[in-house]
Design a protein that fits this description.
The complex is a heterodimer of chains A (311) and B (291).
Chain A (H helix, E strand, L loop, with lengths): L1 H6 L9 H43 L11 H8 L3 H32 L2 H12 L7 H11 L7 H6 L5 H4 L5 H26 L3 H9 L4 H12 L1 H15 L4 H8 L11 H10 L4 H25 L7
Helix pairs in contact in A: 2-15, 3-15, 4-9, 4-12, 5-9, 6-13, 10-11, 12-15, 14-15
Chain B lengths: L1 H32 L5 H6 L8 H13 L4 H33 L5 H13 L6 H10 L7 H8 L2 H14 L2 H9 L4 H12 L1 H17 L2 H6 L8 H11 L15 H29 L8
Helix pairs in contact in B: 3-14, 4-7, 4-8, 4-11, 5-8, 8-11, 9-10, 11-14, 13-14
The chains are: A mainly alpha (311), B mainly alpha (291).
Chain lengths: 311, 291
């Protein structure tokens, strides 16, 4: 920061006060800016940049510290648990994102076409389970999926599930995690989508209706194209977060009598490498894989959509 | 015919909305009712049968006294980590948002861009790297290993930045400068008092994120006395015979007790939700829709 300060145009040595004061003020302002961001800057370096750089360093070195190139990435990529973990998360993401597009948009459009007061009540109810994100939501759903106590036992019975072990068979997990994610997360997205729909000028919708468009036509041809960038926003954020799945397979695994692999998701695999195998270099390699996915998502959002204002 | 169509589609909308209402609400209602029943009741009674207060007291007694009040200890830990993180996050992010919006300095745009990036990236992506870092400086197992990463909250900086750049006119600040305020005074006397709504918003989002965070404390805190609630829940889950009759066995934690622990874990966020309801449902977009 010192060097930045000195790189500012040096104040000419003119002693008249009237001349130097505006210049001095300008310089002082620059310093003030650094002061305001300094606390955050330190946190950013320590807990954002440093861990990322450290993980990258570990990912490209062996435990002795010497450079190994891509070896860790290749070794972890060839591990028999690597592909299944990404496959699991891929299936989960497919269901979760599809349900976001179809159900969240559908519900938001319905809410947008009914009375505002009523829709506010619905929005709040849909949003409420968001309070139970994380471990609590998984616990709630273990109860919901346990045919012996579930209020949905009739439904579960239709599918022939008699005990929790049958409902949470490994093959069902992508769908189950998508349901949990939907239950805890869809409400927030419905609120966001509804807000975006609300921003559409009324004249546009009225014009469409005058031209003879029905409710569905208006929704598909006018409303959806106008909120397209919010849909993209939602999908990218949900995708980025979904790749990081950890707590859900971890907790359901606890209840599954060991049926579910402890390396079900990539993050679990990284955790496994770090804590079971004590191989921090492998763990770092997978972390870097996931970091790159997150970075790519962020890059698409920042550069391709104009959603974020940075002047 | 047209009218008929409209009525029909409206009715269909309401049926679908009510079906989803059931999907979203039934689990919460079931959870709130469960502690009033015994484990046996839960299996053999109608899922929405009312239980008794006696059952509730029994289950609560078992749950709260379990392992020398472990649940209360986890609750306390969760509160310390969440609020510790929020306080530092606020102290750092409000001035940072102000600085980014209303002062000029070299690197400002870069800092803004980086903030945007780390804000969009899921926080979980950095958990293992953070663990590796904490491990390198021997900080694993200390509360600070959770609180300090919590306090890095770029979304808060972005919210504060948007707020200051859109709702606080430059002229207002310039007027204060002309009146003789230095940069610090301008912030303290003008910008900070105006920031109340944004402080509430940042607190809300940071609280929900910190309170529900599982992965970070899970890797940072190996010792059960340090657990926050979510890790405590996993601990209960691994010990209880409720879902796995074959597992554990000696622990007296069954479904009603687990339900109580889950309610304790979610109650603070639920309360904050109810209070923030109005501003949330209307203003969730406030930071982002500015076009």
């Amino acid at each position: 920061m010192k060097s930045v300060e000195s790189s500012e145009p040096s104040t000419p040595l003119v002693s008249t006060d009237s001349l130097s004061s505006p210049l001095r003020r300008k310089r002082k302002k620059g310093v003030a800016g650094y002061a305001f961001v300094s606390g955050y800057f330190v946190l950013l370096i320590l807990f954002g940049v440093a861990p990322a750089i450290y993980a990258i360093t570990l990912a490209f070195t062996a435990s002795g510290g010497h450079f190994t190139g891509l070896t860790n990435f290749i070794k972890t990529g060839e591990d028999f648990r690597f592909l299944p973990a990404f496959e699991n998360v891929g299936k989960y993401l497919f269901i979760w994102l599809a349900s976001l597009v179809v159900i969240v948009l559908g519900l938001a459009l319905m809410l947008h076409s009914i009375a505002r007061r009523v829709s506010a009540a619905f929005r709040f109810i849909f949003y409420l389970p968001g309070a139970l994100a994380g471990a609590a939501s998984v616990l709630v759903w273990l109860f919901m999926l346990d045919p012996t106590v579930s209020p949905w036992r009739l439904f579960l019975g239709i599918f022939g599930f008699k005990n929790l072990g049958q409902t949470i068979l490994p093959g069902h997990l992508p769908l189950i995690f998508a349901i949990i994610a939907f239950w805890a997360g869809a409400g927030g997205w419905i609120v966001v989508t509804y807000g975006a729909l609300n921003n559409i000028p009324n004249e546009l919708i009225e014009a469409a209706q005058l031209d003879g468009a029905g409710a569905i036509q208006t929704a598909l041809r006018i409303k959806l194209p106008l909120i397209k960038k919010w849909i993209v926003f939602m999908l990218i954020l949900a995708f980025a977060a979904g790749t990081q799945l950890f707590v859900e397979p971890q907790l359901v695994g606890e209840a599954s009598l060991g049926l579910i692999s402890p390396t079900w998701s990539p993050n679990e695999l990284a955790y496994y490498f770090a804590f079971q195998d004590n191989n921090f270099n492998y763990a770092a390699a997978i972390s870097v894989d996931l970091l790159v996915i997150g970075l790519l998502c962020a890059a698409v959002l920042v550069f391709r959509t104009k959603l974020f204002e940075v002047e | 015919m047209r009218l008929f169509n409209r009525i029909w589609s409206r009715t269909a909308s309401y049926i679908i909305l009510l079906a989803f209402t059931a999907f979203f609400v039934v689990p919460v209602i079931w959870l709130l009712f469960a502690p009033f029943k015994t484990d046996h009741n839960l299996v053999f009674q109608n899922p929405f049968a009312l239980g008794s207060l006696g059952n509730l007291f029994h289950a609560a007694h078992v749950m709260f006294t379990f392992e020398d009040y472990a649940l209360l200890n986890w609750l306390k830990n969760s509160a310390i980590y969440s609020f510790g993180g929020i306080v530092i996050a606020l102290i750092c992010s409000i001035p940072a948002g102000y600085g980014l919006a209303h002062t000029q300095f070299i690197g400002r745009r870069t800092l803004l861009g980086v903030t945007l990036f780390v804000m969009i990236m899921p926080a979980t992506a950095l958990v293992l790297p953070l663990f590796l870092e904490a491990n390198a400086v021997h900080a694993v197992g200390t509360p600070l290993a959770v609180i300090l990463p919590f306090s890095f909250f770029p979304f808060g900086v972005y919210l504060a930045y948007i707020f200051y750049s859109s709702s606080v006119p430059k002229d207002l600040l310039a007027a204060a400068r002309i009146d003789g305020c230095n940069e610090w005074d301008v912030f303290r006397r003008i910008a900070l008092p105006l920031a109340r709504p944004i402080i509430a918003l940042v607190t809300f989002f940071a609280f929900v994120a910190n309170w529900n965070n599982f992965f970070l404390p899970f890797v940072m805190l190996p010792n059960s006395t340090n657990y926050p609630l979510p890790i405590g829940l996993q601990d209960l889950l691994s010990a209880t015979p409720a879902f796995n009759p074959g597992q554990g066995g000696q622990v007296p934690i069954y479904r009603p007790e687990l339900a109580i622990a889950t309610i304790v874990a979610m109650a603070p966020v639920m309360i904050v939700f109810l209070f923030a309801q109005r501003s949330l449902v209307s203003g969730l977009l406030a930071g982002a829709t500015k076009e």
